[in-house]
Amino acid sequence: MRYTVSEVFSQTVLQQSFVFQLLTRGRNEVKGEELGRSQKRLRIFYLASEMMPLAKTGGLADVAGALPKALKGLGHDVVALLPKYEVVAKGKWRTKPIFKSMPIKLGDNIYRVGVERCYAIPGVELYLLDCPDFYDRPHLYGYNDDALRFGLYCRAALEITKAIGFQPNVIHCNDWQTGLVPAYLNTTDFYDGFFICTATVFTIHNLGYQGNFPPAFIKDVGLPWEVFSIEGVEFYGHFSFMKAGLFYSDLLTTVSPTYASEIQTEPLGEGFHGLLSTRSCDLFGILNGVDYEFWNPKTDKLIPVNYDASTIDRKRQNKLHLQERLELPVDEQKPVIGIVSRLAWQKGFEVVLDASDELLTKHDVQLVVLGAGEERYEKAFLKLREAYPTKVGVRIGVYDEPLAHLIYAGADMFLMPSRYEPCGLGQMISMRYGTIPIVHHTGGLVDTVKEFNEETGEGEGFCFYKFSAEHFLKAVERALFIYNEKPELWRKAMLNAMKADYSWKRSAKEYEKVYRLAIQKRVEKVGL
Ligand code: ADP
Ligand code: GLC
Question: What pTM did the predictor assign?
């Protein structure tokens, strides 16, 4: 059944004065440029499967912990929902129970969930979704029933927002774990009056993780079988949560302008390049920011010696602590190259490992590595430590926030040799700490790191343009040459890096524009 216009009006829709504005002023008058604090507050429902400081496996958590705060700073109302994983429960955050046993219908099953208000992110109305059978587990992802775990998260998100009476103008979904929300809103829930004017924006953080499952799960998550089509959630014979998000959302964003172009091509589109190029006009590349409160060398409580651009010489003392911490010879002069990363194929560490003998025998450097992930990389870095115990310091297989801060602050250079990189936060964090990034020229690394130019003194990093050990090594050698031979220029590069502004404010405004456009699109879609 389709609602008539008068039926729609009779619902709560007209309370949304933005829609009313659209109707009375004519749609074409509402342009992105008209945005600003003085305009109506948006109600934004922010969904992501990890969020700092509660649960993190990578940069998604940094973004989801920071962007909602920045949106709040622009004057919007932001509600967020996170599964109550084991790590969240152990975090002992201040919470208040809202619903003890809320029934959620997912396919043919009813799940009873708890909902708690959590006060961990200032300014953000954060809720925790409690379903111990699904979430009280040691890892966030990687279970056979992930389709049900995140199907429930998506379904519960829609039910909870109703139950708390928060009628969103926009639901901002992030990565595959949230992909079913736009699917529900455009199929089973399309005519639900509560969501009639709710737009969906889907952000791609990494196309390499797609949430592909056997088609049998379609019924289990309560979607109609018809969605299993190329014009729907089908992706090479799988039921793909990522495809659901990409296909059904009103607008799409990804986390850097360069990655937005790259994913429309076969080499980096991960099979979605066709769909993404047909939706090219709906796809926006918005560079991530960094939480400048959390990542601030001047106030960072996790580093031994605080500093800023005007006291940059103090940075060196952190190096001594870092060397000591990783049992390396303590030497202020020695260049220290740092890595803090998931150890995954995406991150391109083959070039480091292939170049490591030449790098470590030819040059007087130290390499420090903090990383966890695939066994082959974990083993390779442990072996490197054995081979060069005075030159390589490692902490492998763990997530260690304090050590990550110490590496950003204490290293001289920071490596991101990624094969592909949607945005990358490590290079921006390292710049904030005056640590010079050495990066492969791809994705967000292109948009954030400019090669240091000896002649002009511009730039804040070193790039290699071809993904090979040889080109990687040459970039490191360019950096080492400036570090060793031209300390004044090195200092200039450090200051350039520290001056670069990758705070969230600018990007949050871009999201605001996209939200407005998505709302306009949704209004057109429902035929208001
Ligand atoms: P990705 O999201 O692809 O992993 P990003 O560069 O966007 O890459 O973000 C990585 C984030 O995770 C950074 O905040 C980085 O400091 C952090 N990180 C990665 N591995 C570890 C680790 N083992 N311990 C602590 N922090 C880590
Ligand atoms: C992903 C990407 C990374 C990006 C992060 C946050 O994990 O791999 O490049 O910075 O998401 O958007």
Answer: 0.92
